[in-house]
Automatic annotation (TrEMBL):
InterPro entries: Iojap/RsfS/C7orf30 (IPR004394), NT_sf (IPR043519). Belongs to the Iojap/RsfS family. This is Ribosomal silencing factor RsfS. SUPFAM superfamilies: Nucleotidyltransferase. Coiled coil: none annotated. Functions as a ribosomal silencing factor. Interacts with ribosomal protein uL14 (rplN), blocking formation of intersubunit bridge B8. Prevents association of the 30S and 50S ribosomal subunits and the formation of functional ribosomes, thus repressing translation. One of its GO terms (cellular component) is cytoplasm. Its main location: cytoplasm. One of its GO terms (molecular function) is ribosomal large subunit binding. Interacts with ribosomal protein uL14 (rplN). It comes from Spirochaeta africana (strain ATCC 700263 / DSM 8902 / Z-7692).
Length: 126
């Protein structure tokens, strides 16, 4: 259907914008992956690394505002993550993972989803 195609286009646009905002604020090695062909629960993943709990909380606050401005509903609360190593925001069509370096190295999400199309990748010098 025409509306479904438009929705996917809008979702990818929001995912790319969110990834850019994350990279601008504090996220390092930020990537956005299109997993729609290989995932049964979401279409896109955004993965980023932060160095501290304060950065993690700051990104969560920014995302709360960004998602609200784009009328994106979340399936989990975005305030006060209890886990210092890994927080996520489930937006249905996309999921945002904010990880400390240790968790990102341990779980290797990019390796798990290696068949995914990369739709955003933060430049190496950022």
């Amino acid at each position: 259907m025409e509306g479904e195609k438009l929705m996917k286009y809008d979702t990818q646009k929001i995912v790319t914008e969110a990834a850019e905002k994350i990279a601008e604020q504090a996220g390092k090695k930020t990537v956005a992956l299109n997993v729609s062909a290989i995932s049964g629960y979401t279409d896109y993943l955004i993965i980023t690394t932060v160095q501290s709990h304060a950065q993690l909380q700051g990104l969560m606050n920014m995302l709360d505002d960004f998602l609200a401005a784009h009328d994106v509903q979340t399936r989990n609360p975005t305030k006060r993550p209890k886990d210092d190593q890994w927080a996520y925001v489930d937006c249905g069509d996309f999921v945002i993972h904010i990880m400390r370096p240790e968790a990102r190295t341990f779980y290797e999400l990019e390796r798990l989803w290696h068949e995914a199309e990369v739709v955003y990748s933060q430049s190496a010098d950022a």
